[in-house]
Write a structure and sequence with these properties.
metal ion binding, mainly alpha, 153 residues, 4 helices, 3 helical TM bundles of succinate and fumarate reductases, 61% helix, electron transport, SQR/QFR_C/D
């Protein structure tokens, strides 16, 4: 039986891994990637099935189709969860890549800041679009809006 002196072990792969007391953010990021990956598979295949298989397939997707979906609270929340899980999952993956391959501290800080900023902006804008989308704007040309809008005068 061989014993290994812990002081002779190599450092972890990422030279920027932090060891500190308290919550292990790397562990929770790893767990999030696995859980969100499973959830995303279900959400994405549901999204593809509804949009491409049911009804007339891809030929049914137009403004009225999207407006009809976004007027239903179920689809608003479905798209909300799809947006948030996918964007945070992708951002966490990019954060891991930046930490693994960018060795200059200043460049890493700039890239991580840009990543966090762009993810936050996309989450805010995407959420606003999902929950504030109005398929029947007042005063719009009736020929250009969905059939369920009725009289817009």
């Amino acid at each position: 039986m061989t014993t290994t002196d812990v002081s002779q072990l190599d450092a972890p792969r990422s030279p920027h891994a932090r060891t500190r007391r308290g919550i292990n953010l790397e562990k929770w990021g790893w767990i999030y990637m696995r859980v969100s990956g499973v959830i995303l598979v279900v959400l994405i295949f549901g999204h593809l099935f509804v949009n491409l298989v049911l009804g007339d397939g891809v030929s049914q997707i137009d403004f009225a189709f999207v407006a009809g979906k976004l007027s239903d609270p179920f689809w608003q929340w479905y798209d909300f969860f799809l947006l948030w899980f996918a964007l945070i999952h992708g951002s966490n993956g990019m954060r891991t890549i930046i930490n693994d391959y960018v060795s200059a501290p200043r460049v890493r800080t700039i890239l991580l800041g840009a990543l966090a900023s762009s993810a936050a902006v996309l989450l805010i804008l995407g959420t606003l679009v999902i929950f504030t989308f109005d398929p029947c704007p007042a005063g719009a040309d009736p020929a250009l809006v969905a059939s369920f809008c009725g009289d817009l005068s």
